[in-house]
Amino acid sequence: QVQLVESGGGLVQAGGSLRLSCAASGRTLSIFRMGWFRQAPGKEREFVTSITWSGGSTDYADSVKGRFTISRDNAKNTMYLQMNSLRPEDTAVYYCGAGRSYTYDYWGQGTQVTVSS
Predict the structure, then answer these.
(1) Contact at 8 Å (CB) between 21 and 79?
(2) Distance between CA atoms of residues 75 and 36, nearest Å
(3) I need a surface site. Which of 28, 46, 49, 96 has the fewest CB within 10 A?
(4) pLDDT tens digit sequence for 94-103
(5) Tens of pLDDT along 35-47?
(6) 63-84 burial string, b = 16+ CB within 10 Å, else e?
(7) Phi and psi (nearest 5°) for 76?
(8) Which positions ≥6 away from 12 have C-beta within 8 Å?
């Protein structure tokens, strides 16, 4: 099992920045990929970005390319999401996920990000 704990959410004005963290514990050696997803009220959960744990290969949703940056610190078993130029439409609960292959097997509890206009 892998446990994931997100932190760093909050309220920010449009154009501002936030950095989210996701700390992994447990069987972290089994992790192949980690990613961030988000869910806005009344909408389905959507993919934001992902990173492979060993090689650091990244992928981004078109809506966040150029504004968000995913990174990881293997020594700390922690993944980060640097979010710049935030927009009101980025408001959502952000979830951290981890998987042993190309699916996500573990999820964090989520952290709220609210961007005011």
Answers:
(1) yes
(2) 20
(3) 46
(4) 999 999 998 9
(5) 999 999 999 999 9
(6) ebeeebebebeeeebbbbbebe
(7) -100, 0
(8) 18, 86, 113, 114, 115, 116
Closest among 88, 81, 85 to 110, alpha carbons compared: 81
**Widest CA span in the chain:** 41
How far apart are alpha carbons 96 and 110 in whole angstroms? Answer: 7
Q: How far is CA 89 from CA 14, 19, 33, 93, in A?
A: 10, 17, 26, 12
Q: Which of 117, 111, 116, 88 is nearest to 38 (CA)?
A: 111
pLDDT of residue 9: 95
- Tell me the three state secondary structure of residue 16: coil
Cα torsion at 64, 103, 75, 22 (round to 10°)?
A: 50
Give the Å distances, CA to CA, from 58 to 50, 54, 72, 88, 89: 6, 11, 11, 24, 22
